Amino acid sequence: MIAVASARLAQLPQGIRFLLAGGFAAAVNWLVRFPLSWAMPYALAVVAAGAIGMTVGFVIYRHYVFPGSGRAPARQMRDFIAVNLGAMVVVAVVAVALKAGVFPLIGFAMAPEAVAHAVGIAAGAVANFVGHRSVTFSAV
After folding, report:
1. pTM listed for this prediction
2. 81 to 2, 113, 116: CA distances (angstroms)
3. CA geometry: angle at 93 spanning 125 and 90, to 5°?
């Protein structure tokens, strides 16, 4: 079953594979933040969830989205981490700023941590796409 799904996924255009892989990694990022918040402060949980999502993303992008990249895996990993750390800063800043600053100011109280984190992930996704396409998994 997994082999069939992998073969079908490989037939999709690269942009669609990137969106699917990124969406899955983002979902992992978002979902693991909930149990992490039980054990640590919100800001640390956001960062830890980002690290988990980043690990899942690298494996999926490398295997399913950019399997033909001519770059050495060690360089890909280094650049992947750098791009994702930059995006993680964006995610954390947006999530914490919304939860601690914007949402209280405007009276938004409907699951503020979850919504703030989701918006932060969306903001970081743009930086990830540009960075991974042009740097991490480029042809050279």
Report:
1. 0.69
2. 27, 25, 23
3. 25
Two tokens at 138? 């480029």
Q: To the nearest 5 percent, what fractions of the chain are helix, strand and coil?
A: 85, 0, 15
The residue whose two tokens read 């149990």 is: 35
Residue 120 in tokens: 């932060």
HSE toward the beta carbon, residue 112, CA cutoff 13 A:
15
As a whole number of angstroms, the distance between CA 136 and CA 111 comes to: 35
Report which of 80, 87, 98 is spatially closest to residue 123, judged by C-alpha positions.
87
Among the listed residues 57, 67, 53, 59, the one whose alpha carbon sits nearest the alpha carbon of residue 10? 67
Note down the domain range covering 88: 2-136
Number of separate domains in the chain: 1
Residue 4 clears pLDDT 80, i.e. is over it = no
Residue 9 has pLDDT above 70, yes or no: yes
